[in-house]
Amino acid sequence: VQLQASGGGLVQAGGSLRLSCAASGITFGRYGMGWYRQAPGLERELVAGISTGGTTYYANLVKGRFTISRDNAKRMVYLQMNSLKPEDTAVYYCAADLYKTWTGSDTGYGMDFWGKGTQVTVSS
Hints:
Blueprint: E1 2-6, E2 9-12, E3 17-24, E4 31-38, E5 45-50, E6 56-58, E7 66-71, E8 76-81, E9 90-98, E10 113-114, E11 118-123
Parallel strand pairs: 2-11
Antiparallel strand pairs: 1-3, 3-8, 4-5, 4-9, 5-6, 7-8, 9-10, 9-11
């Protein structure tokens, strides 16, 4: 199983980035896909999740600025991040969990698979 996240980088506040996660080795359509992030010294937190049926959940801090989507045919999940803020700076991780639907925030404990993460840095 491999979850390969990409698209991170350095961007100025107010800018945009699009993260991508390519999944292999799993029956992608059966997995809820989430984006999590972890900033130095802080606990890992859920950014957004999308269920197998396309139901989405967003952390309050990113609601209205970030959009999660998935393309089952391409085995991809995306995170479009707009109006980025310095506090969005973190390592962003893609994760998968069988048939998961998010109904609230979590730290990702128990997710089945994780990618290696991609760094997002937002300068002020």
